[in-house]
Write a structure and sequence with these properties.
Number of strands of chain A: 11
Radius of gyration of chain A: 22 Å
Order of helices and strands of chain A: EHEHHEHEHEEHEHEHEHHEEHH
Largest interface: A-B, 54 and 54 residues
Helix content of chain A: 40-55%
Largest sheet of chain A: 11 strands, mixed
CATH superfamily of chain A: Isopropylmalate Dehydrogenase
CATH architecture of chain A: 3-Layer(aba) Sandwich
Oligomer: homodimer
Distance between the termini of chain A: 42 Å
């Protein structure tokens, strides 16, 4: 994901309930892995003193050397340098375990091939989640592989028909988009479940208020759109009549309503959602590249460009994916977060902190309860 | 449509074959109608000396006064002012006919209501096209009404299963997108027909070279996407094996390939296409508004903003819809062009010139021939 909003400082959630939070990470996932991942991991361990990590890695990688390189790059006499020099062998290495695998998944590997050789870093890290060894997984690699493996290995939450990829779009106010890519074909009942799951996420993670929810469509009149939009509108419209505690329902919304934050949660199928997400991302890149080119056309433009540098830097920071936590595969039997393939070390660190927050808030147990409620309503009616 | 490329000068196509070109226009269509439409009409009549127009208008409108107001706004002693002062009553009014109607369609009218009272400016202008009184129609109003009315009144070209809305996306090179909103639900054979029609359009209107064509999808592997994408890929893939003269087939493409002009024609259903188009438009607006806000944050930024004004003006002109011709409803039994609801007089003028060019190139007869060829192939095989 290309553009993403200014980070918010992670609130101090450490040591809540005295539960130790354990996250699994595939060291090999991402365009700049394993260097970006190891650096992000160490930065997180420095920030969150109760964080424990299980790292699956390709056994030809010398992770000790990567750690050493990272520490040597730190400014000597800095607080963080001293921390690592002092605590590496005891406190830090007690909080992190490295698990070797004989293979790993590259960005170009096809999802269908992943389960053929199961001794790979991606399958292994999800097996840790399935077996309860970790509470959540973060992955920065191949999205297709992530979707396939997470569902196959970890499985769905009790009552969930289809897990969905939930992405936070960083407009003036955050807008949750789901499904942003997991299910190219959907049914109205999936969209209803997406709505329920996202509302719980919204309340727990974004803001403790009633979110405004809409179905993505090509117009706002009832007769507009494809049959999925129209049928889902009927289903969600009738659900909300008896269940108005989770979200307030706007009906149909369009991309214009999303960029202007007139809606908090947008539900759609994973085909349309993914196309919209990628359209936003690629147009954002296109516009910035276009502006850059214009500002280097001649000497005057270059001079004004130099003066504008600080302003553009600030603007770009709002659109920077590395400030952003990642997309949650919601509805899985465990917290699974996918961050950008281009994630650098800072992005990895932010994503680990984000995964930590998701685990801490334990949204899955609330989802199970709410879906059970609907089932009971449906059975009784 | 928000962003659109720098206009190209209309080549001098006047008086080709000595055929008089007649265009019908609904004076009442568009946010700034009837002033924007009357002004665009007069500008076009000034530029294209063989253009004839039939204008449907709401009979409470005093169009003579609108014309008078326009001429009075022109700089006295200018060439255009003198032209209108000299020729209004003879040459110009001979090329334009005003047809009164007792009602018109507003931007908020629902498509379903339009055919209830047929004596409205929109139905009437399409009846002129149906009856051969004009060769094409331009409309700047309500898109839903345009789609509905054009198909119902004008009807499909012989052999066409579904007309589609063809939009030209103005990236570094123009990219044709269809269906950009007419058919929310599509079948693979529609996408094949869209491909054939768009290729003919491309060769006649954009560039006399073989266009690269792709199906919009959420990934480029064969197994990716929804069933429409996968089935259409099979159908178009097998069609291209025996018909390689219209386009070269790329398989699946993503939004990234579109903004980078790696593809010339993108086919998809009208739901996905419309969402993508609106995502591009609304993100473009969002980014420009964001930049504007940042450049007015404080005195320094405002000063740099003033220096950058010329640069941004140039950048915005590339993204300005008013430079853009409009979207063609391709596959209809007559040329029907929809331009932006927000079209100003210059945009209306450009759209009339664009409609003129489309009529002149007579793409419909080539489409009929090509579709006949496929039918024969299918029948023989």
């Amino acid at each position: 994901m290309f553009f993403f909003r200014k980070k918010k400082k992670l609130e101090n959630v450490s040591n809540f309930n005295n539960k130790i939070i354990k996250i699994g990470i595939d060291l090999m996932g991402g365009d700049y892995a394993p260097i970006s991942t190891i650096e992000g991991i160490l930065l997180s361990l420095y920030e969150l003193k109760d964080l424990h990590l299980k790292i699956t890695y390709y056994d030809k990688i010398d992770y000790k050397k990567l750690i050493e390189n990272f520490i040597n790059k730190l400014p000597k006499r800095s607080k963080i340098y001293n921390y690592f020099r002092k605590n590496l062998d005891n406190e830090i290495l007690n909080r992190i375990e490295f698990i070797p695998c004989s293979s790993y998944i590259s960005m170009s590997d096809k999802p269908v091939n992943i389960l053929k050789n199961k001794d790979n870093t991606l399958v292994k890290v999800f097996e840790l989640l399935r077996d309860g060894v970790v509470d959540g997984v973060l992955y920065a690699g191949n999205t297709g592989a992530f979707l396939e493996t997470s569902v196959l290995v970890v499985g769905r939450l009790n009552g969930v028909k289809r897990p969905a990829l939930l992405t936070v779009l960083p407009f003036n106010r955050p807008v949750l988009l789901l499904d942003s890519g997991a299910n190219p074909e959907c049914k109205p009942e999936y969209l209803l479940q997406f709505s329920i799951m996202a509302s719980i996420y919204y309340k727990k993670i974004i803001s403790n208020s009633l979110p405004k929810l809409g179905i993505l469509n090509i117009g706002t009149e009832k007769i507009k759109g494809n049959s999925l939009a129209k049928e889902s509108n009927k289903l969600i419209g009738s659900y909300i009549k008896t269940n108005d505690n989770l979200f307030s329902y706007l009906g149909f919304v369009e991309p214009y309503d999303i960029v202007n934050s007139k809606v908090d949660i947008v539900v759609t199928d994973g085909f349309t959602g993914n196309i919209m997400l990628k359209s936003f991302e690629s147009l954002g890149e296109y516009v910035f590249n276009f502006i850059k080119k214009e500002f280097s056309l001649n000497i005057f433009n270059r001079a004004v460009g130099l003066l504008s540098r600080r302003i553009f830097k600030r603007i770009k920071s709002y659109f920077d994916y590395s400030e952003y936590g990642g997309a949650l595969m919601i509805g899985l039997n465990g917290i699974s977060v996918k961050t950008h393939g281009r994630a650098n070390s800072r992005a990895i660190k932010n994503s680990i902190n984000f995964t930590y927050k998701l685990i801490h808030n334990d949204i899955n147990s609330i989802i199970i309860k709410e879906l059970n409620n609907i089932r009971n309503i449906t059975l009784n009616s």
